[in-house]
Amino acid sequence: MLKKIIYVIPFVLLAACEEEVPEAAPEVEITNPQDGETLLQGDVIPIKAIAEDEDGTITEVRIYIEGEEVGSSEESTYIYNWDTENYEVGEYVLSALAIDDDEGYDSDNITVLLDNPGGLNPDLSYGSVSDFEGNSYATIDIGGQVWMAENLRVTHYADGTPISELTDESEWAALEADAQVYCWYANLPDNEDTASVLYTWAAAMGGGTSSDTIPSGVQGVCPDGWHLPSEAEWKQLEFSLGMDTSQVVRTEWRGEDEGSQLKETGYSKWQRDPSGGSNTSGFTAVPAGFRSASGTFYNYHQYAAYWTATDEADTDKAWYRALKYNTEQVYREYNAKNMGFSVRCVQD
What we know:
The protein has 2 domains: 24-115, Immunoglobulin-like; 127-347, no CATH class. 39% of the residues are buried. A 5-stranded mixed beta sheet has the order 2-8-7-4-5, with no helix packed on it. The protein has a 4-stranded antiparallel beta sheet with strand order 16-21-20-19. The protein has a 3-stranded antiparallel beta sheet with strand order 1-3-6, with no helix packed on it. The chain has helices at 2-19, 169-173, 201-205, 231-240, 245-248, 258-262; strands spanning 27-32, 38-40, 44-52, 58-65, 68-73, 77-83, 90-100, 105-115, 127-130, 136-142, 145-148, 164-165, 181-184, 197-199, 226-227, 252-254, 290-291, 297-298, 303-312, 317-324, 330-336, 346-347. Strand 10 and strand 11 (145-148) form a beta hairpin. It is mainly beta. The chain has 6 helices and 22 strands. The longest helix is centred in the first third of the chain and has 18 residues, at 2-19.
């Protein structure tokens, strides 16, 4: 009798323990796209979620984009086709939620970057111009001014006179203010991202005299029929983009979103930041970086700097404009004439 009790009690306890084992929760995984993947804006992207439940049945799988439910299915494998055409460039969190017949659930989250290839604004009409070497540039009318929509990359003046290339850092640091030389960023002429030359101010001016008129009257390194824009012409551009009068005359970072209007869209060239470009102006600014007066290269993928035809009186400095990846404003200041900056030309 005692033996029976000894054997029965363990059996009863074991049965009780088995009854208290909780049901297994389902599992779900987003298998496409991959976490961290870059996707192309305008494409239809299949978001695929696969759910499993080892002791039950999957009753629903839901897909979310930035926390908003966009689709659901009663199948354990669900593919939602995400049409990205009307989504802005930027990062997006994609989520999947699986629910089983015991109301257990599981979720999976990934982050993707929705990007575009950049380039010219497809909604605007562009013209074109060629330089002495046969390089062709898109052009765009902004507020009545016709600007190049690409950085100048010519290494000769319009009359065929070559401009000297200078690669050595110490020699660049020793340059006088009137030195007419150029370089490519990091001395790499086959730069696929910006393909533009960095010029000293004297090289950009081509021996011309400082001007702050509209037009500047300084052809400089620009093709025939074009000129290097003055301070006044840059201000005119900024006015046309909506910059307030009180902001235009300030130095350093000014305005509101005028820089964004000038910058190329997407992150194929510009470093990723929420303050990306809209390129509504068509200017299509790219971050070619710059060369400092000491000969060091800086801020590729982050910064664009453009010479004006206007110097700061009685100094070895000249005015320029700059754009940066993490701001929507436009920078205005003067700096040493032996800096290496990009050039955009304006039609006469």
